């Protein structure tokens, strides 16, 4: 059972990645837990086919985002809307109320992005390079750069109007 042990090790090492994707596409804790489990299940189903041509995190992001988007689309077809809950706390110093309010506003504006834009901005905030975001999303690196520029402009415009 070395394959199972290897899989468990990889999941443990990258559980933060899975949680971030689950948190990005759900509002309720139960939905987040369900999505987390579904992502792990989909990773397990695909584990045999992982050929190590890409980094393990790239492969995991691709499956996690596709699973999350698929679940979101299922919920929308059922008439249930899912938004962005809360990204990890970006401000360590809670004493700065103005900065904290701006972060909340940014989170709110990210929530209004479409599902692909949310995924791209998550990967960007994770420090992924355009090429890796392209590999994860299936877009070209040029397209990723264009989309990131547009997302930044959209967020900047919304933030300055508030």
TrEMBL record:
The keyword Oxidoreductase is assigned to this record: no
Keyword S-adenosyl-L-methionine: no
Highest taxon of the lineage: Bacteria
PROSITE patterns referenced in this protein's UniProt entry, alphabetically: HTH_LUXR_1
Residue ranges constituting the HTH luxR-type domain according to the UniProt record: 127-154
UniProt keyword terms in alphabetical order: Sigma factor, Transcription, Transcription regulation
InterPro entries: RNA_pol_sigma-70-like (IPR039425), RNA_pol_sigma-70_dom (IPR014284), RNA_pol_sigma70_r2 (IPR007627), RNA_pol_sigma70_r4_t2 (IPR013249), RNA_pol_sigma_r2 (IPR013325), RNA_pol_sigma_r3/r4-like (IPR013324), Tscrpt_reg_LuxR_C (IPR000792), WH-like_DNA-bd_sf (IPR036388)
SUPFAM superfamilies in the cross-refs: Sigma2 domain of RNA polymerase sigma factors, Sigma3 and sigma4 domains of RNA polymerase sigma factors
One GO molecular-function entry: sigma factor activity
One annotated GO biological process: DNA-templated transcription initiation
Pfam families in the record: Sigma70_r2, Sigma70_r4_2
NCBIfam families: sigma70-ECF
Family designation: Belongs to the sigma-70 factor family. ECF subfamily.
Protein name: Sigma-70 family RNA polymerase sigma factor
Lineage: Bacteria, Pseudomonadati, Bacteroidota, Flavobacteriia, Flavobacteriales
């Amino acid at each position: 059972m070395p394959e199972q042990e290897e899989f468990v090790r990889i999941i443990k090492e990258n559980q933060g990645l899975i949680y971030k994707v689950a948190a990005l596409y759900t509002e309720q804790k139960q939905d987040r837990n369900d999505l987390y489990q579904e992502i792990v299940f989909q990773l397990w189903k695909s584990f045999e086919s992982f050929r190590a041509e890409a980094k393990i995190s790239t492969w995991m992001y691709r499956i996690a985002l596709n699973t999350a988007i698929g679940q979101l689309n299922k919920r929308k077809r059922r008439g249930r809307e899912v938004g962005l809950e809360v990204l990890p706390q970006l401000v360590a110093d809670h004493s700065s109320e103005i900065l904290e309010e701006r972060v909340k506003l940014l989170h709110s504006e990210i929530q209004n992005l479409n599902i692909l834009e949310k995924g791209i901005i998550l990967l960007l905030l994770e420090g992924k390079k355009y090429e890796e975001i392209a590999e994860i999303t299936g877009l070209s690196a040029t397209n990723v750069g264009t989309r990131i520029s547009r997302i930044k402009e959209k967020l900047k415009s919304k933030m300055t109007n508030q």
